[in-house]
Amino acid sequence: MTAELVRGQNHPLSQVRLEVRVSAGKPVVAGATLSDEQGRVRGVEWVAHPGAPTLPGLEVSQQAAADHRLAFDLDALPPAVHRVSVLLALPTATGGPVRFGAVAAPFVAVTGLDGAEIASFTLTGLDAESAVVALELYRRQDAWKIRAVGQGYAGGLAELLGDQGLPEARQLAGTINEAVAQGVARSVAAPPPRTPDSDRSRQAAASAPGPDQPRTGPGVQGAPGGTTPPQSPYDLAGSGSATPAPTGYPGGSAQPDPSAVTQPSSPAGGPIDYSHPGRRTSAPPPPPPTAPPAEPGRPARPVAGDATGWSMDERLYNQVWGMFEDLARTVAAYRSAVDFADSRMEKELDHALSDPRSRIGGQGDAAREAARAKHADLVDQARAALDRDLAQLTAEAEVVEPALPTAYASWDNPVWHGYRPPMEIPMAVRLGDLSLPESGTLSIPMLMRLPLERGLWIDSGRAALDGTLADSDQLRRLAMDTAVAHAARLLAVYPAGEFTVHVIDAAGAGASSLAPLVRSGVLAGPPAVGAAGVTDVLARLTQRVDLVQMALRGGAADSLPPGLDTAEQLLIVNDFPHGFDDRAVTQLRYLADEGPSVGVHLMMVADREDAAAYGPLLDPLWRALLRITPVPDDHLADPWVGHAWTFEPSLMPAGSQVLERVLAQVAAARRPWDR
Fold first, then answer.
1. Left if phi > 0, otherwise alpha if psi is -120 to 50, otherwise beta: which for 460?
2. Distance CA 634, CA 549 (A)
3. What distance in Å separates the CA atoms of residue 501 and residue 520, rounded to the nearest whole number?
4. CA 26 to mean position of chain CA atoms
């Protein structure tokens, strides 16, 4: 089974004769560097590039092209070589784009000689960089592994090669660019534009981007430094605010069709096919509908997975996104129409009553009745359009919800009864459901992209919830139950051994809620209690963040301690700030700010008012987290029109044993990793 890697993830290699296939959409230069045990490139003779395409054990392309095949025989590499880095760079001699942020995200795949894909990686999040280290093949204890790197360099090849310790970096970069310039005539031409493969039938339709296409659309904001992809369409609104948040809006233009590219000719005169045998660089069309065609004059019958994407999970994710967008659009249109009807009626009444003569003889009453009749007619028309759109979305939700995979499904979905630990990380995870006052019973799943880029704050404060529950202790228990449900879902959707959960419950107040996690044995250790427990857990996690950051920045990921847990880490903090001193609060802020970039995530169950004694010191902490509530609350806003969406958490049905069964399977799958 193919492993779809994310930045920083590694994967074992069972073969030593491999191909690395690159699909970029635009001509790029592909090369490779060899480095020793210290990660240093010893000289220009350890760099394969278009001017010197062959080295012992590897061969790269001799020209810039949109598609490449790089051949590797790891057993034939010199014994001193411990790492092979696959490089991609935008050519400077073609007059094309000068930064990766202006082109589709490159896609690289490692395959066997039979073409079977072993691992793949999409280089998202690039911006001003013109050269990038895409992958590393490295020795680890007499075995070879692959790591997805995605490290970009705005200074181009010269900066990249210099960072790998090559003294002649600038001269070699010039040599490579000169070799590319000489082969421009042989380069693959830029593909012509094409029309989208398919469109949604709704007004806001747009072809969904694939793994090699940057996501664009209303409210999209890149992460700092342009190194991470956008994640969630949902906004943190601590007090009903509607500040646009980073989104993964599936819009944007269609990608060029690689089949339309004019390929270079082979020596025998036939075309050389550089296309990846199992991957396309533009989103495939949705599968043909299985439902009968719609009757003339009626809307098409909805089909689960009718959006674009490479897999059913991606098509369903994009379809849910489209439904969310459509509900926002249709409600915005209805509210706008009602506002127009109100303003028009007010103007007509003002005009009718501004003439004193209209008050005599009943003319004023007639004018008021006519204005109200027009108002009612306009509102009725707007409501009819809204009801039509809601009926179509409701019908779509009825076929989409049962088809959702476990990561997207609600806890009462039967798919959980057939749960098995997955082999790959899904695109997103469900946090709950979103609805609007006008949508009635219709709600849209709230999906958050993985890996998490923001921590979660489950608000246990009564003030923010308008006293929904009279008992504050009951609300705190419900907030902790919500945290356990989210933690269990994250454990369930990650492959075995790739997600670790720690708990700080300084006062022991969450023991009853945490019982399923403790009994199943899925936690990294018993919940930490007391000030000493808080200090110990925070010290270990902050040290992990420091070590991984230093290793990544120094390009020495192999130097991490052998016992370091490389899985994603989640810290659940209950009843904050009980048991926290000033040092612990500072460490918690550090984890919230720096942790997500190196796989350490935070989930807080807290009432902001309880931490009021710290004053504005903790404001950055609350802003860094996505606030969700254990009971329905309208505190989230979309990034387009700023609707106040009612969020309803995804909780276990009363009396359900699904949580225990799922955690038991997670624990069983983790045991080989814990040895």
1. alpha
2. 37
3. 12
4. 24
- Give whole-number Cα distances, 100 to 129, 150, 152, 247, 609, in Å: 6, 12, 9, 20, 45
- For the chain, how long is the longest CA-to-CA vector? 106
Q: Are 237 and 635 in contact (CB under 8 A)?
A: yes
Structure-block tokens of residue 185: 């005539």
| C-beta atoms surrounding 298 within 10 Å | 8
Q: Do residues 189 and 262 lie in contact, with contact meaning Cβ atoms separated by under 8 Å?
A: yes
CA distance 338 to 536: 58
- In the block, which residue shows the tokens 């504005």? 616
- Report pLDDT for 103: 84
- Those residues with Cβ within 8 angstroms of residue 303's Cβ, 6 or more apart along the chain or in another chain: 289, 290, 291, 399
- CA 632 vs. chain centroid, Å, equals 25
Contact present, 232 and 626 (Cβ < 8 Å): yes
Distance, CA of 498 to CA of 594 (rounded, Å)? 19
Q: Which residues contact 364 (CB under 8 A, 6 or more apart)?
A: 352, 353, 358
Place of tokens 């903090």: 573
CA-based nearest residue to 310, from 114, 134, 122: 122
Contact 282, 256 (CB under 8 A): yes
Encoded amino acid at 275, one letter: S
- Strands (DSSP E) contained in 102-193 are 107-112, 117-122, 131-140, 143-153
CA-to-CA distance for 598 and 569, rounded, in angstroms?
9
CA distance 422 to 415: 13
Residue 253: pLDDT band with limits 50, 70, 90: very low
Q: For residue 450, give the DSSP letter.
A: S
Helices (H), 238-362: 312-353
Kindly report the number of other CB atoms within 10 A of residue 226's CB atom.
17
Q: Say if CB 166 and CB 44 are below 8 A apart.
A: yes
Note the Cα 316 to chain centre separation in Å. Answer: 14
Q: Which amino acid is at 658?
A: V
Q: Which of 23, 26, 20 is nearest to 188 (CA)?
A: 26
Radius of gyration of the chain (CA): 28
Q: What share of the chain is helix, strand, coil (3-state, %, to 5)?
A: 35, 20, 40
pLDDT tens digits for range 594-633: 999 899 999 999 998 888 888 888 888 888 899 999 999 9
* Cα 627 from Cα 638, distance rounded (Å): 14
CB 100 within 8 A of CB 106: yes
- Number of separate helices (H) and strands (E) present in the chain: 10, 21
Strand spans (E) along 544-594: 568-576
The structure's pTM equals 0.59
Amino acid in the structure at residue 590: Y
